[in-house]
Amino acid sequence: MDVVSLTQCPPFITKDGSEIRELLAPRNSCVRNQSLAEARLAVGAATQEHYHVRTEEIYYLTHGRGRMRLGTEERDVTAGDAIAIPPGVRHKLWNTGTEPLRLLCCCAPAYEHSDTIMTE
């Protein structure tokens, strides 16, 4: 049984500049086709715009507020919002709030730096 505590996950920086803690992925569990991580963005910070060639993502915001851009569309997002990000769609997230923005990132297939294409 794979049970992983967020407090035991070491943080690392992804290619887009996010600090994440990978909870479950092929690297550390029996999961083979997806990954789950918690990402954090400091107040005033933003990810670098990017897209994934193969991976579709779901962002689920757990704390804070921000602004999300998918392709050419932008909108404000807040804790409790879920965002669908199809493969090949450029995206960027800003923390526009007064506390760290925290979100769960679900990726299928699992997140890999090599599938991330930077666009800025």
Question: Main traits of this protein?
Answer:
11 strands; globular; three-stranded antiparallel β-sheet; mainly beta; six-stranded antiparallel β-sheet; 0% helix
What does this structure look like?
- The protein is built from no helices and 11 strands.
- The protein has 120 residues and is mostly beta strands.
- It has one domain: Jelly Rolls, CATH 2.60.120.
- The strands form 3 sheets. It has a 6-stranded antiparallel sheet with strand order 1-2-3-10-5-8, with no helix packed on it. A 3-stranded antiparallel sheet has the order 7-6-9, with no helix packed on it. The protein has a two-stranded antiparallel ribbon with strand order 4-11.
- A hairpin with a 5-residue loop joins strand 1 and strand 2 (19-24).
- The protein is globular and about 40 Å long.
- The model has no long low-confidence stretch (mean pLDDT 96).
| Rg measurement, Å | 14 Å
What is the strand arrangement across the widest sheet? 1-2-3-10-5-8
Q: Quick one: how many beta strands? A: 11
Please give the CATH architecture.
Sandwich
- Kindly, what is the distance between the CA atoms of the first and last residues, rounded to a whole number of angstroms? 41 Å
| Overall body shape | globular
**Low-pLDDT segments, ≥5 res:** none
β content, as a range?
over 45%
Number of helical segments with 4 or more residues = 0
For the record, the count of structural domains works out to 1
The third-level CATH topology is Jelly Rolls
Class per helix and strand makeup: mainly beta
Kindly state the mean pLDDT as a whole number? 96
CATH H-level homologous superfamily name: Jelly Rolls
CATH class: Mainly Beta
The percent of residues in helical segments reads under 10%
Order of helices and strands: EEEEEEEEEEE
Largest sheet: 6 strands, antiparallel
